[in-house]
Amino acid sequence: MKAYTGFLALSALCLSLTQLFASETAPTLDCPGSGVCREEGTGLPLRILPRPFSNIYKDKAEGDIVQENVRAFYPLYVFARDDLDASVPNDPKGWYRVGNSPDSEPVGWMRAADVLEWRQALVVSYSHPGEGADARSRVLMFDNEGQLKEMVEAQDRTARFSAAYDELVQQRVPSGIVSKEPERFVDITERFYMLPIVDYETVMIDGDEARFLQLAAAVPGERSQTDTLDNPEFRQQVTATAGALSDVEAVKNLGVDLVFVMDMTGSMQPYLDRTKEAIAALARQTSAAAGTRMRFGLVGYRDDIKTIPELEYVSKNFTPTLVAAEELVGILDTDAKAATVGAGDYQEEVFAGMKTALSSAWTDSALRLIVLVGDASSHPVGHPQNTTGLDEKALNIMANDAQVHVMALHLMEDRAVSDHALARKQFATLSKVRGSTGEPALIGIDVDDKEEFEGAVKSATDRVMALIEEIERVAETSAPAAIGSDSFGVNIEPVPVGQIEGGESGAVLSGVSLMEESLMDVVPVQEEPVTLQDLQTPVMVAPEPSPVVVVPVEPTPAAAPMDPSAKAGETMQKLIDTALVEYLGKGQTPPRDLLVWAFDRDPLNPATPALEVRVLLTKAQLSDLVTKLDLISMALDKAELTQMAFFDALSSVSAGTVKNPEQIKNADKLQRAGLLDAFIESLPYKSEILSLSNEMYAAMTPSERAALQSGLEAKLMLYRAVNEDVDGWVQLNEGDADLDKVYPLHLDALP
Questions:
Q1: Please, which pLDDT band fits residue 119 given cuts at 50, 70 and 90?
Q2: Phi and psi of 642, rounded to 5°?
Q3: Could you give the 3-state DSSP secondary structure of residue 650?
Q4: What pLDDT, on a 0 to 100 scale, did the predictor assign at position 534?
């Protein structure tokens, strides 16, 4: 069975770039003359990306210009190709007839030398740049592959790239580098941009595969001819310090939304009371002005009420509108109470609580934080009491796309040691810190130590309040400043809110980045039962060097394990710093209208990805994908119940919805069944679900089949959440129908 065990981890889709960029022969094109050109076999329309300063001509001659200076690298659709000759790659001959959409009329003709064919809807996005010890170098963009390759493969690569970053800090332009990723993070889900992959070369760097990518850079609806480093204004913008709050107006509007997601089954009343005390203490010592910047939310979760109706709800949002600290205290005092009946099994509906919390009425100009509190794992997908169809991985993707950052407090009791490993795995995934390769924002607390729990909540809220007080100071003085840990340029003294057991609520942050200190507590996810001592045993992780060292910092000496109270404060600071990276990048403009070469890794630490692969999926394609995956899920059910061969079952449930059920029945694997949209089947990535055959299905154990079904259900729920994300869908062309809008879906979210 070992051959099929790895197959069942659907979310781990074997999507390495080796598989993603597996070379394929370009498909044959069909240009009927009365419509858009399409690839034979897939039916996908052919698109091109115009080069800068290109024109659309009325005829196949450089005379009558229909549209001058066409928007660079903005996709157009091809209706005809004529007299093409690419024997000289750098000077192709011939013409393309182009239009704005597959359903429009052609606009005119473009020279082959002025366009790039874009065969796949694959783009890359900048990965979260991290913070402190986890910070990665920003992507440098080269004029040609030769210059990039020469630097990356040089024996003194680190020294040469470090020198290039130093030159940029000093506002000088390194040789061969034409542009760069801004220091401030540009989140593609917040500020949409396009980096289509035009060409690539695979290389081995330090024993790992990496790639040189030729990328086109564009932003829908925008043009620029000056997004290069030889433009002083652009150079100043993209080298601005990632954490510097020079925009005082942004500081004046900045706030924090903090939502507690709490288990409200019978055993949790003492923790609800302790949370109330911690928030009450915060409210008593918060100034009126600072209090207006901080809003709280509360979501409770229990278990499936179909199983135990007396539980009253699965999850409940007690704050449809986020409230001030005093109001939250009142809600905890009167409304939010633990259940008076037992929940049956030990597991609860953690995922339902998280799903509800992610839909909170977040403030546009606030950092978004969640504190998850629970003592049990969540029912996994496929369990009769899982009410959402989601798993921790899907929820983590949803949180990242919504710019929500999660800290988890796992209350651990000895009698439930068999649940610890699963709960830790789930909580660790939910609290994974964006841009970090270190530990998740997860803290284990002895369930019997109520004082320690209250101390952890106080310590975490101290850090939030320290940020609020610093924002108030900056707003009042209108003086540019930096906010956060040392990585943001200043040290913040948290506002003490009562004495915390086992920790110091008023401790001043040291000159060493909190990231470096917190990484001393890294604990890997373990598959065997986890004890509280396991969670408090430090594992040394050496921080990676920053790309530019301004002030030397002495290495942090090994320290004793932090108690949960102190660790909660430092963990919350880490989340604040990470959230600030995103917030401060909201007004940043990525490079536009360029054709460049870039390295897909951090050149100073090639183990760290600098670019993430995404696929631009239209609403129509997502809708079709959901329909077809529903059929596959139904077929899995039918095959399990009737003992039919999988493809016989799939043919049966698909009979009224597909053109050729016999093709499905006779397929040797799902990819050749003609069921899924050709768009998915044609993507150059490896998907184990597409490789599913009758033989593979027959060889699976019942638990493996259940895991396969659960993975599909989690994907389906994720797609439905994406479909409902109104703000996430982008209109590439003016006049595009709603179904033609695109979404930059994570490649590892595909089936």
A1: confident
A2: -105, -5
A3: helix
A4: 38
Cα-Cα-Cα-Cα dihedral sign, residues 141, 145, 146, 150: positive
Highest-confidence segment of 115-124, 364-373, 642-651:
364-373
Q: Residue 323: exposed, middle, or buried by beta-carbon count in 10 A (0-12, 13-18, 19+)?
A: middle
Residues in the chain: 751
CA-CA distance, 108 to 124, in Å (whole number)?
Answer: 30
pLDDT higher at 114 or 493 = 114
Predicted confidence at residue 43, as pLDDT, reads 73
Q: Looking at the DSSP assignment, which residues form a beta bridge with residue 108?
A: 98
Predicted confidence (pLDDT) at residue 344 exceeds the cutoff of 50: yes
Q: Which helix (H) or strand (E) holds 198?
A: strand 197-205
Query: Judging by DSSP bridges, how do beta strands 208-217 and 594-599 pair with one another?
Result: antiparallel
Q: CA 211 to CA 183: how far, in whole Å? A: 22
Phi, psi for 198 (deg, rounded to 5): -95, -40
Strands (DSSP E) contained in 58-139 are 65-67, 76-85, 93-99, 108-111, 115-118, 122-126
Name which of 485, 458, 469, 459 is nearest 256 in CA terms: 469
Q: What angle do CA 565, 570, 574 make, to 5 degrees?
A: 145
Q: What is the pTM of this model?
A: 0.78
Could you give the angle at the alpha carbon of 382 between the alpha carbons of 381 and 386, nearest 5°?
A: 60
Judged by DSSP in three states, 603 sits in coil
Please name which of 227, 396, 470 lies closest in space to residue 748, comparing C-alpha atoms. 396
- Highest-confidence segment of 346-350, 438-442, 597-601, 691-695: 597-601
Query: For residues 30 and 43, what is the distance between their CA atoms, to the nearest angstrom?
Result: 9
Say whether pLDDT at 576 is over 90.
Answer: yes
Cα separation of 572 and 131, whole Å?
13
Q: Extract the tokens encoding 515.
A: 């990231």
End-to-end CA distance of the chain: 22
Whether the pLDDT of residue 694 is over 80: the answer is yes
Q: What angle do the packed helices 392-401 and 417-430 form, to 10 degrees?
A: 30
Q: Helix or strand or coil: residue 169?
A: helix
Tokens of 613: 């692969």
Average pLDDT over residues 346-356: 94
Q: d(Cα 151, Cα 158) in Å, to the nearest integer?
A: 9
What is the residue type of 360?
S
User: What mean pLDDT, rounded, does the chain reach?
Assistant: 80
Per DSSP (E only), the strands in 145-196 are 177-180
Q: How far is CA 518 from CA 136, 242, 547, in A?
A: 17, 21, 20
